[in-house]
Amino acid sequence: MNIFRLAGDITHLISILVLLLKIYATKSCSGISLKTQELYALVFVARYLDLFTDFISFYNTVMKIVFIVSSLAIVYFMRLHPVIKRSYDKALDTFRHNFLILGCFVLALLIHEKFTLQEVFWAFSIYLEAVAILPSLSFFKEVEMWTT
């Protein structure tokens, strides 16, 4: 096992768990961009399609499932939880993320290693992960504009 990959996985897992705990403990998702969370959930679902076809290791399988489930849980809380969804400020989360999804998918169709479903979705997840933070940056810019 590569120590750097393990350290990256652990820090990423901690950040997701901290976010989930913050949402659950405060019963609020204020200050969080739902669009960014949806993009990250899409990144993990697209990237880990091999979960159904290839077994690498128990650790790898568990981490893939944890990343998918935790990302979907964040989206669930923000979209559907009766109490938490009320704290989401849709008016501040205005980034048009559909263009990111479409652009990254077209790029993945054009630039990939092999033209297979799994490879195209892997490339899509890589491209989308690179820009998934943009809705949050736009969200914070909107929040700052309203608070200064």
Please provide a written account of the structure:
The chain has 6 helices and no strands. The protein has helices at residues 3-26, 34-47, 58-80, 97-110, 117-131, 134-147. The protein has one domain. The chain has 148 residues and is mainly α. 70% of the residues lie in helices and 0% in strands. Helix 2 (34-47) packs antiparallel against helix 3 and helix 2 (34-47) packs antiparallel against helix 5. The N and C termini lie far apart (47 Å). The longest helix has 24 residues, at 3-26.
Write the layout of secondary structure elements.
Layout: H1 3-26, H2 34-47, H3 58-80, H4 97-110, H5 117-131, H6 134-147
Helix pairs in contact: 1-3, 2-3, 2-5, 4-5
Characteristic terms for this protein:
globular; mainly alpha; 148 residues; 6 helices
> Helicity, in percent?
over 70%
State the secondary-structure class. Answer: mainly alpha
Question: Which quaternary structure do these chains form?
Answer: single chain
Low-confidence region ranges = none
Can I get a quick summary?
This protein is mostly helical and 148 residues long.
